Amino acid sequence: MWKTVLRRVLVMIPQLLILSFLVFVLAKMMPGDPFTGQINPNLDPKQIIRLKHELGLYDPVPVQYTRWLVNLFHGDLGQSYIQKVPVTSLIADRAVNTFWLSLLTTVLTYVLAVPMGIIAGRHQDEWQDQGIQIFNYITFAIPGFVFYILGIWLFGFVLGWFPITGSVSASASGFWEVVGSRFYHMVLPALLFSLITTTSIVQYLRTGIVDNKVEDYVRTARSKGVPENVVFDKHILRNSLLPIAAFMGTTITDLLGGSMIIESVFSYPGMGKLFLDSISERDYTTLTALILLFGILTLVGNLLSDIIMSIIDPRIRIQ
Amino acid sequence: MAKEEQTKQTQTVAATDAKVSLPPSGFRVVWHEIWKDKISRLAFFVIVLIFLLTFGGSLFLSKGQVTQINILQSYAGWGQDGHLLGTDDGGRDILNLLMMGGRNSILIGLSVTAITEVVGLIIGLVSGYYGGFIDSIIMRVVDFVQILPQMPIIIVLTTTIPNYNAFTLVLLIAMFGWTSTSRYYRSFILSQRGRDYVLASKTSGSSDLKIMFREVLPNITSMIIIDVVLTVAGNIGIETALSFIGYGLPTTTPSLGTLIGFANDPVNVINRPWLWLPATVLLLVISLSINYIGRALQRAGDARQREN
To answer: Alpha carbon B98 to chain centroid distance?
Structure first.
């Protein structure tokens, strides 16, 4: 078990290094340097060049890369060109918002997907299953942002049930009121987002149940006289639910990938929105840090899902 | 009694004959599957209709004329001043933008798919056919590209690449798309490399290239068609999503995503639905129809594979 985990973590190290190098190259491709926006027009151009020399911007690329990497390990991602604050603190503020939205989305996804998958698998080809399949097909087929726009239009404008922008209402005061307002602002984006992400879990769970139903061990249980309900709950369901746990890891990836769109539609101040804002302001240090962070989180997500998978299914452990 | 035996015998002979004769070509199987199901037949007609309207309609339009700004006519409502679907903030006719944008979005989806299918197919064939060391190297690369944050990288590159245009956008999206395609073909070809027909061909001295492209490839035509259909839908989704947040097609080129992007402004959502609603509905119909056909084909393909 621990060998597998260790091995999987070791595989991640070269991936991380290549990722960091790619991000560094991307950062070098972007225009601008740490002086952009800070330079006084009266300053002598020669002095700027001297300052750049001091900062090592004319050093060979490998030297610059190593320095960037060392700074990275010290948690120094540079200063934001525009906001004039360290990038890390800028991102930290937004990351909290994205974290809560993602958490709520994940909870809702599983709360919705698991019962749907179970019902569809249990009543295979009956009307319940067909209904869920149609729903599943629609959420799979429609591009996310179209779904969000229609959701905002219906629930935000026509019915007016939910706020459509921001993360907290300006008039909220006191701890519980703020918490309540935050939650209220997150419900609609999280619900719409989770409906889109249920597809693969529902499909996987349904297929698992349908496949397990005809396995030998189920037939054995039935022939021993185990009641049908117990066969379903204790035998089939348990075996079909396990692989779903591994989706936790990939959910992180899905959420990060989709966060940009959902946060843009709802003007929700999270990391995805920060990324889009930074790109329109040409805030390249922040962009670089965000891409690196997105990449690392995706790697961690994959690592998690592999580890969970090897815990619950010993067959796939690497020898 | 004897007669019955005979008919039975002829039946079995007929059945084996049918098995021996060449399987119908991938295209015919696929066409049959589309035609068999009522809804996918409908979806097919809807797609053909949308193609005719967007591509046909665009034939009569020139880009300069469609994107010309005419402030005096800005925000005309439904059917106002001879604009059936009204006009946008620059007085551009929404119907024209819709036809041209629909065509552009579909064309981009098709172009990206063409590239990713060719690249993915070749890489999948090579990786799955040779296996071993080559396969593990290729798969490492595929794994790595798949963990890269696709959207952020594309968005950053759209703003930093000089001379950015529709063609560069196609390349950028394709840069990430080939991985899942090659993975899809690789897993199937891995299962084919030990099959008798491949081994027989190898023993009789066929070159690897010949086996890959003349013998394995024809076996997966229907798989290719299924993948193409579903990938086109996915790629249209990616392009419109990018254009929607403002980093897809250049602003001078109409796209469905740009039109839907009008809904980012709450004022437009309530007061000017003609700006974003037609494009939203069109994209919705396109995605639902293409995906329905793809799903129907996929189900049929799965069923056939289970029979084998």
So the answer is: 20
